[in-house]
Amino acid sequence: MKVFILPRVDPFKGAVPRYVAYCVAHGAHSADEQQRKDRARWGDRWMLSFTMWLAGEARRWCKETGFPSAASMSWAEHNAFNEWLAARYPIPRAAPAHKQVHRVANG
Prior knowledge:
Layout lengths: L1 E4 L11 H9 L5 H12 L4 H19 L9 H14 L12 E4 L3
């Protein structure tokens, strides 16, 4: 039997940080998984769920920080909101490479 050690794979590669937080908040293990779930529920309007969730999180952030409105945020405030989201919904760590083993029978 041959054993191959697979490299770590980032299941959120290419996704913007706010969408990653949305995926994590909804229990998805990858951006593709969340997109499939949302497309099954929302069809062509699959981004609607993300947009509604993001607006709710922005309202929560404004309330917690005392910021008056997410509609008039500066770049610094956008960055603070992104950091708040990342802390609230941390990305699960990928399994270490030594745990990602693929066994192939000799043939």
